[in-house]
Amino acid sequence: MSIRNAEDQLPAYKPKQAAEVMNVHINTVYRMIADGRLKTVRAGRAHRIPAGELAPFRDGQAA
Q1: pLDDT band at 55, cuts 50/70/90?
Q2: pLDDT (tens digit per residue) in 5-38
Q3: Phi and psi for 19 in degrees, rounded to 5?
Q4: Residue 27: which domain range?
Q5: 29, 18 in Cβ contact below 8 A?
Q6: Domain presence at residue 34
Q7: Of the candidates 45, 63, 53, 44, which has an alpha carbon nearest to the alpha carbon of residue 13?
Q8: 35 CB-near residues (< 8 Å, 6+ apart)
């Protein structure tokens, strides 16, 4: 049995979904991943962006 923290249980978004939440183009999301502005979790070759990373964009605190 493994112990997981609360962050492991939060939803994670695909880059396209994150782009919609942030109201930016998907290429902007990939650029933000590449330069470290968005942290991701890797699932094989796929990137998943934890919901906590998008909170500032939903709250209007980041541009």
Answers
A1: confident
A2: 444 566 899 999 999 999 999 999 999 999 999 9
A3: -60, -40
A4: 11-58
A5: yes
A6: yes
A7: 53
A8: none
Asked whether residue 6 is assigned to any structural domain, the reply reads: no
Which of 33, 4, 28, 2 lies closest to 41 in space, CA to CA? 33
Provide CB contacts within 8 A for 26, sequence distance 6+. 15, 16, 19
Quick one: the chain helix, strand, coil %, rounded to 5?
Answer: 45, 15, 40
Residue 25 located in a structural domain: yes
Q: What is the pTM of this model?
A: 0.74
- In Å, how far are 3, 5, 60, 61 from 22, measured between CA atoms? 31, 26, 9, 11
